[in-house]
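re: that chain from earlier
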Amino acid sequence: MKNKTEEDEISSLEAIRAQIDEIDDQLYDLLVKRFSVASKLARNKLSEGSMAQTAISSSSLPALRPQRENKIIQRILAKTNAKTEQKNAIPPALILRLWRLLMSATAFKQNPYAIAYLHSDLLCATCRGACFTPQVRLLPQNTEAEVVAVLSQEPQAFALVSLNSVNETTENTTARASESPQAQYPWWCFLFSTHAPRILQAMPIIQESIKENTRKEQSNNTCRTRVLLLARIPNSFIDEEACTKYFIVRIPEKDPIPNEARCRELTALPADCLLLLARHDNMLLIECRQSNKRSSASIIDTLKNLGETRHIGSTHDDWLIDNEPKLD
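^ sequence. v structure.
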């Protein structure tokens, strides 16, 4: 037979569980309301004047809006940061994961889309699972060329590509040429043409565990690698206020290929702004950081000292998702 203290404890637990159930019901009702409002938003997007003037029809533009998503996440994270002293503060990584999945799901409801990715890239697969609704149709591909090609075949598809693959040497990519005529080219080379896909946004940083000595600069045997989302969008859709911009420069055949130091010397861009991410033949992939105060046009004018330049996309600050896939 239970004594009064035990009965009081059980009663207290039941009351707390009932309170949690009530909150869960409220959360569900709020989610239904959010999805309903998102459906109204989808109809309004089709009538946006800026979209109606683009070469790509507004019905084929992606539902994801990086500028808006960035503002939402920054606002929610600010709430979390303001409560860091409270024991009930929600971990920022959890906030990021929840809101990324929520925004992905509401965007999918507005306009269903698919995700293409390199099936052998564990990093992209991890990001796909952590950041996108399970409803998304998956399109695994064998080569990076095929990943980018999907965007021409399916207007509502996105592509995930990781920046850890851009530093492959020409020898490594040429060795894959037997698999496909275009397999020797890294994904970013396909973004040079005028109507090619563009970098739409940076996905949350994935923290990955790696083998010892794979990257000597990582003393704790852990690195954080960015994953980018590509889409077929008009250049006018690229966010000029983003803090990081990406460019491809094609060096004239008669000129020597410059290293990063030479690129900075020729462009007069500071070391903390210009990063030479990769090169392939006479093509350079350049990242310009802290570029939100400079227009892409002004940066292109500077990079023209190196060669013909294309702005291939922009991204906002990316955040860390505490997810560590084991790499064999």
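The two ends are 56 Å apart (CA to CA).
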